[in-house]
Amino acid sequence: MRLQSKLALFSAASKVVILLVLIAALPTLVNKVALHNADVRLQQKEAIVYQLIEDQGIETYIPEGTTSYGSYNLLKEEFVSLEEISSDNVNNGIATALRKVEGDIVEYRLLSSTFDLGDKRYLLEIGRSTETIGENSQTLQTYALFFLVAVVLITVFVDLAYNKVLLKPLTLIVRRLQRVEHPTTFKPHGLNTSTDDFLYLNNTINDMMGQIQEAFQKEKEFIGNVSHELLTPISIMQNRLENLLSDSDTPETLLEKLVDNLRTLHRLKGIIQALLLISRIENEQYLKDESVSLEALVREVCEEITERAEVREVTLEVHVPTDYVIPQANQSLLFTMLFNVVNNAIKYNKPGGTIILRGESKPEGYSLCVTDTGVGIAEEQLPFIFSRFKRFHAPDGESHGLGLPIVQTIASFHHITLHVQSKLGQGTTFCFEFKDA
Does residue 253 come out as left (phi exceeding 0), alpha (psi in the -120 to 50 range) or beta? Predict the structure, then answer.
C-alpha cells in the first residue's frame, strides 16, 4: 500500500475514533453546558426580581395578610416563588428539586435565595423545568453532532490534499527511478522542495546511483580485460595444438592426448564466451535498435538448424499464421535465444520425434511456443534450469549448462516473459510472451 494511502487511512481512522469518543461524551458535556446556562439564566432572573422588589416594594407581591407569592407560566417551565420564612431559616444555592404544580409533581432546576427586608426574612425561589433544559440539551446535541461530523469530513479532505502536496517530491523521486531502465542511464536531478528529508533522500539516491554507475563501468572494463586476457592465450594454445595435430612428425601416441586437450580447450572457450555473453547483456553492452520480425526469425533459426535436426531424425514444424514485429530489439541476441531453445529440443528429443514452433496473437501481445516430444525435465529440476550455478547431465557430455541461462538473460533484456512446462518422458514446452508496445 502506498505511503499516501496509509497516511490518508490513518488520518481518517484517527478522526473517526475521536468522533466516536466525542459522540459518547457528548450527552454528558452538553447536559453540563445546558445546566450551566440554566443556572446563569436563573441568576439573571434573581437580579431582575430583586430590582422589581426594590422598585415596587415587597407589598406588591406579598400584600398584608398573606405570607407568600407564586407565579407559574402556562407551560410550567419557570416559576417565581416569594415566601416569608422564619428568621432562623437560611437557604441559598442552586439545586434540582421537585415541586407540586397544579397537582402535578414537576422537577425543576431551582435557585433559592434568602434575604431580609425590614424585620422579616423572605425566601425567593426561581425554578426552571428540567424537561425544558433537557429539550434544549437534545437540540444542542443534535447540532453538535452535525458540526462534529462536518469538521471530521472537512479535516479528512484537507489532510488528503495536504498529504498529496507534502508527498509530491517523494512521488517524483519514485517516478524518476521507475523510468531508469538501467543504472548506467540514470542522470542525477535536483529536487524543488523545502522538506529536508526528501532532499536528503534525493541526494542519497543520486550518490548511490553514481557509485553503481562507477561499479558498472569497472565491471565493463573487467569484462573487456577478461575477454582479451583469457580468450587470446586459449586461441593461441588451440592453434598450437591443431598445428601439432596436423604435423606428420607428431607421434601417434600423442594424437589421442592432443584431441582430448583440444576438446577441453574448446569447452573452456565455450564456457568463457557464454559467461561473457551473459555479463555483457546484463551490463547493457548490446544495443536494442532493431525491429525484428518474429516469423522471419523463426524461419531463419529453423533453416540454420534443420541439418542438425535431420541428423537426429527430428521433424521441425512451424505454425506462425500471423507475424509479430518486436520493436527496439537486438536481432542477433534473439536469434541466439531461440536457437538455444530449439537446439535443446533437438538434443533432448527422441529419434523420430517432433518439434513444433507455434505463434499466436493474444489480446495482450503475442505468444511463441516451442514444444518437443523429448525426454522432458524432472519436476524437481524445473525451478533450477535457468540457474547458471546448476548443471544437469547432458546426453552429449559436452554441454556446459549455460544455454538456458543465456536464454533467460536475453528474454529479460527484451522484457519477454518466459514460461516452461514439462513432463518427464513426454516432452517440454517453452513459451515466450511478447507484450504489446
Answer: alpha
Q: 10 Å Cβ neighbour count for 341?
A: 24
The model's pTM: 0.57
Q: Which of 96, 408, 91 has the alpha carbon at shortest distance from 274?
A: 408
Give percent above pLDDT 90 in the chain: 26
DSSP-assigned states of every residue in 401-433: S-HHHHHHHHHHHTT-EEEEEEETTTEEEEEEE
Q: Cell 501481445 sits at which residue? A: 365
For the chain, how many residues are written? 437
Q: Which helix (H) or strand (E) holds 377?
A: none
Task: Report CA-CA distances (Å) from 354 to 28, 43, 106, 316, 322.
Answer: 85, 106, 103, 6, 22
Contact criterion met (CB below 8 Å) for 176 and 202: no
Query: Please, are residues 366 and 321 in contact by the beta-carbon 8 Å criterion?
Result: no
Q: How far is CA 315 from CA 301, 312, 393, 427, in A?
A: 14, 9, 24, 14
H runs (alpha helix) in 179-293: 196-246, 252-282
* Single-letter code of the amino acid located at 357: L
Q: Which secondary-structure segment (H or E) carries 25? A: helix 3-56
Q: CA of 334: how far to CAs of 186, 296, 305, in Å?
A: 26, 12, 15
Q: Please tell me the least confidently modeled range out of 45-49, 102-106, 123-127, 279-283.
A: 102-106
Spatial contact of 374 and 348, defined as CB atoms under 8 Å apart = yes
Neighbours of 317 (CB within 10 A): 11
Q: What's the distance, CA 259 to chain centroid?
A: 59
Taking 70 as the threshold, does the pLDDT of residue 388 lie above it? yes
